[in-house]
Design a protein that fits this description.
- Two copies of one chain form a homodimer.
- By secondary structure, the first copy, chain A, is of the alpha+beta class.
- Helix content of chain A is 32%, strand content 16%.
- Chain A contains seven helices and five strands; from the N terminus they run H-H-E-H-H-E-H-E-H-E-H-E.
- Chain A has a four-stranded antiparallel β-sheet, sandwiched between helices.
- The first copy, chain A, has a single domain, classed as 3-Layer(aba) Sandwich (NADH Oxidase).
- The longest helix of chain A has 18 residues.
- The radius of gyration of chain A is 18 Å and the shape is globular.
- In chain A, helix 2 packs across helix 5.
- At the A-B interface, helix 1, helix 2, strand 1, helix 5 and strand 4 of A face helix 1, helix 2, strand 1, helix 5 and strand 4 of B.
């Protein structure tokens, strides 16, 4: 299944064809593919090149590790994410390595890394569904997170499922239209709220 | 000039060839190209599809607007960013539109939008240099930012410059090697600090 963006201006296919399925195919992702996704994250830019991102990874080939990670999602996400072949947690080091001060850009830069990971996934026929609905306290305990490390997102990774073979509820969610505000709602010129022309 | 990443695992050329120059060519960027960059940002994923990002844009074709935006960077960034043909500010709406509660993922999702913008730039022969070094107070005042909107980054956009025609200091910075920690420093399995295998 594909679900391209409805574009007002042309963009590269890797951008237009990235989307966030809830229905994944029953197909494993080779570890070498995952290494390439993580390599894309690795080369993201970051403030002071601090590279504040980290990922915890579990695949269905490791049932205990997968179950532990799945249990760190809010129940509404567990319902569909249990069918993904790969789950990850996205984490941020929130203090600067250089001076231990708060890194205001830590979550921003994790977002950049995860976005590049998702582009690399699209290039390989995979898709990534990122989630904010996680249980940070459970994650901190389960994975023994040190002070200054925050769990921020989870990521489900896999090949999009065939709507004809997905559970109806997931197929229906994946069939819903994609929606974004127009550029005039967020691209400004002389002042906030004044469209850039 | 190009400056591809030194890869441990293969990634798509648009990821490997994205980098952050300080030296830009003396060449304008057509507005239609910028619209495509912003369209890539538009289609980023976000928590609750809140799309918390916004951009303020100024080009050298608008000298007053450009000077105003340039003045919102820390002096160290002004020295090189003044030569970029396009400057932007990246902003985040830090409260959820749905219920006015804090959006923990606002900066994260701005980061995703800016990363996709930078990939689209690479696809068009452009590069983006993002900066954390901005003057948020000056920006809030200059652009009349409402409560709940934060300036987070600036972005310089343009065609990379020919090192032979750049000022020596900029050419030297652009010639410096790219550097990232290996995956074992940020990809974990059973617990924080334990490499995923």
């Amino acid at each position: 299944m594909s679900k391209p963006a409805i574009l007002d201006h042309p963009v590269h296919a890797l951008i237009a064809e990235r989307w966030s399925p809830v229905g994944f195919a029953n197909r494993s992702v080779p570890p070498a593919e995952l290494r390439s996704l993580l390599e894309a994250a690795r080369w993201a830019p970051s403030a002071y090149n601090e590279q504040p991102w980290a990922y915890i990874v579990a695949t269905r080939e490791e049932p205990e590790a997968f179950a532990q990670l799945l249990g760190c999602l809010v129940p509404g996400n567990q319902t569909w994410a249990r069918r993904a072949p790969v789950l990850m947690i996205g984490l941020a080091r929130t203090r600067l390595a250089r001076n231990d001060k708060p890194n205001r850009h830590a979550l921003h830069d994790l977002g950049q890394a995860s976005a590049l990971l998702s582009v690399e996934a699209t290039a390989r026929g995979l898709q990534v569904h990122q989630m904010g609905g996680i249980l940070p306290g459970a994650i901190a305990s389960a994975y023994d997170l040190p002070q200054g490390v925050e769990a921020v997102t989870a990521l489900a990774v896999g090949y999009p499922g065939d709507p004809d073979t997905l559970p109806d509820a997931l197929a229906a969610r994946d069939a819903s239209p994609r929606d974004r505000a127009p550029q005039r709602a967020f691209v400004f010129g002389a002042a906030w709220g004044k469209s850039w022309e």
